[in-house]
Amino acid sequence: MSQAFAIAIHGGAGTISPETMTPEKYEAYTEGLKRALDKGYAILEQGGASMDAVQAAVMELEDCPLFNAGKGAVFNHVGKHEMDAAIMNGQDKSAGAVCGISRARNPIQVARAVMEKTEHVLLSGAGADTFVVEQQLPIENDEYFYNQLRYEQWQEALLEGTVQLDHSEKKMGTVGAVALDQAGNLAAATSTGGMTNKKYGRVGDSPLIGAGTWADNRTCAISCTGHGELFMRSVVAYDIACLMEYSGFSLADATDKVVMQKLVTIGGEGGLVAIDNEGNIEMPFNSSGMYRAMRKSDGTIKMAIYK
Known about the structure:
It is built from nine helices and twelve strands. Helix content is 35%, strand content 23%.
C-alpha cells in the first residue's frame, strides 16, 4: 500500500463578514481555491514531490488577483508592490525565501530558486530583484500588478494614515500550501503582498522560516496567515513543530494551543494550514474567517471560508 498523501491551502484569514460576501464573490474565491488545490493535488496523485505540489498551488494563487500575493499584491505607502515568499523542504529542512521584491510574477518561484541556486536562505529588496533577472524568471511591469480594488484600499489607508492588514473586509491576503507526498516528505510554501500602506520596507512573517513557514518530516509542515508582527513574535510555525517534537503533542493539540490560546493572549489574529507526517490536516484560525481548502488521498475534500 502506498503512503497516504494530502494537501491543504489557504488564501488568507481575517475579518471576512458574511454580510458582505455576495454569492458571486463566494463563487470567485472558492473557484480560485479549487484551481490551486487541484493543481497541487494532481502532482501528488501522480507521485510527484510535495515541494512541487506546494509551489504549483501557491503559483496558482499568486496568479489570481483575488488574493494578496503576486498579481493581487497590495500597494505599499509609496504606491509600489513589495512581495515576500518562502518555501521549505521537510526532508532536509532546506529553505529559500525572498522579501521586498517588486517585479517577479511568481515570488514563490524565486524563493525556490534561492533555495536551489544559492548558498543562502533569504534574499531581500533590490538584490533579490537582480537575482530574479539573472535567473531569467518571469518578470512583470507595474501594470500587471495594478488592481483597482487594491488601489482604492491604498488610497483609503493613506487618508486614514493607517496600515491595513492584508485581510480587511474588502480583500484577502497571504496565500500558502502544505503537503505530504507519497514518499512521506512534507513541504510548506507561503507568499504575500504584505500590508496595504506598509512603510520602511516592512517585512512580515511569511518569508521568515519558523515564523510563517516551516516543514520538518519528523513533525509537520505549516503555512501561516494573519497579523505578521504577532506571528513573528510568537515564532508560530516552529512553536507548533516544537510542541509536537519535544512535548508529544498531536498536530490538533499543538495548533490549537498556539492559534487559539498563545496567539490570542497577545492579540495575534489569523490562522494557518498544517499537515503532519501521517497526513492529518488542521486549519485553525481565530479570526472571523479564513479561505482554506484541503484534499486527501482517502477522498476527503473540504473547502470553507467561515467556521
